[in-house]
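Today's session is about reading a structure prediction critically. Students often jump straight to the picture, but the first step is always the sequence itself: look for stretches that repeat, for charged clusters, for runs of hydrophobic residues. Only then move on to the predicted structure, which in these notes is written as discrete structure tokens rather than atom positions. Here is the chain we will use throughout the hour.
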Amino acid sequence: MKLKAFIGIALALVAIQRVNAQAKSYNVHTVAFYNFENLFDTIDNPNIDEEWLPNGAQNWTYKKYKQKLENLARVLSEIGTGSIQEKKNPNSPTLIGGSEIENRGVLEDLVKQPNLLRSDYGIVHFDSPDKRGIDVALLYQKKHFKVTSAINIPLIIYKKQLDLSAKKKNEVDDASDDKSEIELNSERVYTRDQLLVTGYLDGEEVNVIVNHWPSRSGGEKKSSPFREAGGALNRKIIDSLVKINPNAKIITMGDLNDGAYNRSVKVALGAKLKKTELASSGDIYNPFEQMAKEGNASLFYRDAGDIFDQIMVSQQFTLPDYTSFRYWKAGIYNKPYMIQTVGQYKGYPLRHTINEVGFSDHFPVYIYLIKQTN
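Below is the predicted structure for this chain, in token form.
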């Protein structure tokens, strides 16, 4: 009898624990990053890439531009709205970092698309000195995120860091739309600024850095010092934030033009593969390194995939309790309608061609932030 009574009590306790676990509820926010791939309008600006005009090489018409906006809006409205602990999350991303953006005007057109209008996105954007005229930006849902400060921090790098004339004969340029960023007759390499935005996410201070590091034009190895400089600048920004507030919550994200294993990310920025490796509040956890090890990809080139698009978080987002917002999980958004289904590039992201308006040559990436509410 005693044994039966003990077993009965134990089973009852397990049942109570399960009920309590099921009763927990969470406040959920999705944070996303998407390389919009050449989001240009059709207005002629003499200082901007003229390829993307009605009479340019891409035959970029207003009709195509509108379709591009519709395509991007569809993707953005759906990221992170899947199943969370068997419950649907109806909200599109609260924070969206973007790259390859011509100007603020294209973002204003984007957030007015029917699929995004109800989310009431605000815009943080600065013009950068990039030679192609492309910038980074942050979109945020005004009802959840209140911006307190925003600044664009220039990445100042010089041609002397990269000797293009020394490129080996058998080394070719990696795929890039940014080859014009390197001018042999100029000392400085003009590339994208890094965008730092600070604000309150449902009352909690969060710092967000949006990046688009220099391309692999000139070859991966030869151009690596430029991206390492990007990682070093990111590290400097993070250290400055932690010096001001040792408990700072920091998200850094972007198209890094490098994988999670490259020197720019692993050494210059110092991103860690495992949460257990984080020793101080300024240490950065990169969930996309493990995803890359498992064979996932956000872009493809020469039949090989990699994850150049990454979202990383500081130690404060990885603490074990959920009394404030913590990192939960990461993903790559690659629904079938976004994927090329035929031809040489079957399985690749469905990008723009002369005859078809696609989405992007990158898949967007995202993370969930969750906070227990009871």
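Discussion point for the tutorial: The radius of gyration is 22 Å.
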